[in-house]
């Protein structure tokens, strides 16, 4: 199954599998981006800042860093701006390698880049698998991994399940890690879509073995611009700064951080959309008899056990049916424990979500 594209959001890589033109018009549910699109002021601001491209950016991105520190209630020394959440993941792995970590555990199924980053830095990987179907964490197993490996990666809320490991569990893992010299790396790329009190930022005051990875590309729908950051102890962030290539974030992206964080209206509109649309889509998919994982994020994972039984069909077949109808969803072939038996869809606007539901209904009842 390795010839399936490893990330969503690339119709030109997926559609030709089905003999469809790569540039066909599709509704893209395969990348988990805010369907509100970038804030309306963004294009104009970028155009106005083009002159900044003529000079090198501040290598420490102090203005952006301070804006993040302020909004997170942290000191500036605990923040490092990165070229998307992806760079934050690779920097976290680089730090672990620098600290001598030889083996890391990853809570699976999850985003594939933690494993790639670890392997890139020569760190062996073991997996802590969530329970099939419920995707609950076996806390004893995770605790064991925290004792045995030098680090544990987990994603919260988790891509692709949308599940959220309880904060109390995270705290216990951190305590175990502290007494065994292990780091906990939590990717909070989708935390902006969860209620604010679920952010783990306050735990940084108590645990210096915690690293938090953030992305700004999902919430603000700017994956092409690349913007993320990393939060940790001042010592860890300082070590990470040493490992980061110089000027890895471009001036246009860095200059957007403060105004993006200040745009509370955009955040409120996003919350209003998601509060209405996620339960609606989840309910409609469940009403079609699909097995939908309750999600804390802006995407839903589902499968259709009945369909597989009754028609000998499969989720890849449903994916193809949807693609032929101009709807792109995310396959799960690369996710450990899912192996193509589930599909993931981003929550989008009501008309788009309705189009998805209707297309699945046509598949089920042709
Ligand atoms: C869980 C998770 N973390 C990080 C990233 C990387 O995001 P960015 O675009 O900020 O690099 C993604 C992208 O899909 C993701 O799903």
Automatic annotation (TrEMBL):
Metabolic or biological pathway: Cofactor biosynthesis; adenosylcobalamin biosynthesis
Domain Aminotransferase class I/classII large: 25-360
PROSITE patterns: AA_TRANSFER_CLASS_1 (PS00105)
Database matches in InterPro entries: Aminotransferase_I/II_large, CobD, NHTrfase_class1_PyrdxlP-BS, PyrdxlP-dep_Trfase, PyrdxlP-dep_Trfase_major, PyrdxlP-dep_Trfase_small
Organism from which the protein derives: Billgrantia tianxiuensis
Protein keywords: Cobalamin biosynthesis, Lyase, Pyridoxal phosphate
Essential cofactor(s): pyridoxal 5'-phosphate
Superkingdom, taxonomy of origin: Bacteria
Function: Decarboxylates L-threonine-O-3-phosphate to yield (R)-1-amino-2-propanol O-2-phosphate, the precursor for the linkage between the nucleotide loop and the corrin ring in cobalamin.
Reaction(s) catalysed by this chain's protein: O-phospho-L-threonine + H(+) = (R)-1-aminopropan-2-yl phosphate + CO2
GO MF annotations, alphabetized: pyridoxal phosphate binding; threonine-phosphate decarboxylase activity
Protein's recorded name: threonine-phosphate decarboxylase
């Amino acid at each position: 199954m390795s010839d399936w594209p490893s990330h969503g959001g690339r119709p030109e890589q997926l559609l030709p599998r089905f003999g469809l033109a790569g540039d066909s018009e599709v509704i893209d549910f395969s990348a988990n981006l805010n369907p509100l699109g970038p804030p309306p002021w963004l294009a104009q601001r970028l155009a106005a800042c083009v002159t900044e491209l003529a000079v090198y950016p501040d290598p420490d991105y102090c203005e952006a860093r301070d804006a993040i520190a302020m909004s997170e209630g942290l000191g500036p020394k605990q923040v490092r701006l990165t070229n998307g959440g992806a760079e934050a993941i690779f920097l976290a792995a680089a730090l672990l390698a620098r600290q001598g970590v030889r083996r890391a555990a990853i809570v699976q199924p999850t985003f594939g880049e933690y494993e790639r980053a670890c392997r890139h830095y020569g760190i062996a990987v073991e997996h802590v698998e969530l329970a099939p179907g419920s995707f609950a964490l076996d806390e004893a197993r995770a605790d064991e991994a925290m004792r045995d490996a030098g680090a544990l990666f987990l994603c919260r809320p988790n891509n692709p399940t949308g599940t959220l490991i309880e904060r109390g569990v995270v705290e216990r893992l951190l305590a175990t890690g502290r007494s065994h010299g292990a780091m906990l790396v939590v990717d909070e790329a989708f935390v902006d879509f969860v209620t604010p009190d679920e952010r783990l930022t306050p735990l940084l005051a108590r645990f210096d073995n915690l690293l938090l990875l953030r992305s700004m590309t999902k919430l603000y729908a700017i994956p092409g611009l690349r913007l993320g950051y990393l939060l940790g102890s001042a010592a860890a962030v300082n070590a990470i700064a040493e490992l980061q290539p110089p000027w890895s974030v471009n001036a246009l992206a860095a200059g957007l951080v403060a105004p993006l964080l200040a745009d509370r209206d955009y955040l409120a509109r996003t919350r209003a959309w998601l509060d209405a649309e996620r339960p609606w889509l989840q309910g409609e998919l469940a009403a079609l008899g699909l097995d939908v994982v309750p999600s804390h994020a802006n995407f839903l994972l589902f499968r259709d056990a009945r369909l597989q039984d009754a028609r000998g069909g499969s989720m890849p077949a449903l994916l193809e049916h949807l693609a032929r109808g101009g709807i792109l969803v995310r396959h799960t072939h690369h996710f450990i424990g899912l192996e193509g038996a589930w599909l993931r869809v981003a929550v989008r606007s009501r008309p788009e979500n309705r189009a998805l539901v209707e297309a699945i209904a046509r598949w089920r009842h042709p």
